[in-house]
Design brief:
Aminopeptidase; single chain; globular; 161 residues; five-stranded mixed sheet
Length: 161
């Protein structure tokens, strides 16, 4: 990585740059699967990424050249109260990861995922998970081949109309 990158917890002033990166990813998702995804407005996206006030959530940003170049939102998923076949454990869940188009391939995604995993572990998580679209081959390669995640399940969907 040629340029210095700082990973830090997000502040309120980061909401808009994070939303802009999110919207770029939303456009890519819409292009792959228009029947499933939509591109929200900038205001909608900005409201999604106000720094979380809940103790079970963290929003990290990657700062490069004085600007936000990526983000990761990680949540804790606690075991359900009712009986289940799943082994009860706390999981970290990277709900969103985004890197600006001009910063892809610089290692920012890896640094953000490492920060998310470190935070989740410090909060008691035993594992960390992420989900992505079946047609998002670039993300699936990044998570699987580069970071060592393995596929555990498959979501199937069928329109009802």
């Amino acid at each position: 990585m040629g340029q210095e990158v700082t990973i830090r917890l997000a502040s309120k002033s980061d909401a808009r740059p994070v939303a802009e990166i999110y919207l770029s990813a939303a456009r890519e998702a819409f292009d792959r699967e228009p029947e499933h995804f939509r591109v929200p407005s900038l205001d909608e996206a900005t409201s999604l990424f106000m720094p979380p006030g809940a103790p079970d959530a963290a929003l990290f940003v990657a700062e490069m050249d004085g600007r936000v170049a990526g983000f990761a939102e990680v949540l804790l998923r606690r075991p359900r109260e009712e009986p289940s076949m799943l082994r009860p454990r706390v999981l970290g869940h990277v709900r969103e990861l985004g890197v600006s188009e001009d910063a892809r391939g610089t290692g920012i995604g890896t640094l953000l995922m490492e920060a998310a995993a470190k935070w989740a572990l410090s909060e008691g998580a035993e594992a960390i998970m992420v989900d992505t679209g079946a047609k998002n081959t670039q993300a699936r390669r990044f998570y699987g081949e580069h970071l060592g995640y393995r596929e555990l399940g498959v979501i199937l969907i069928k329109p009802l109309s």
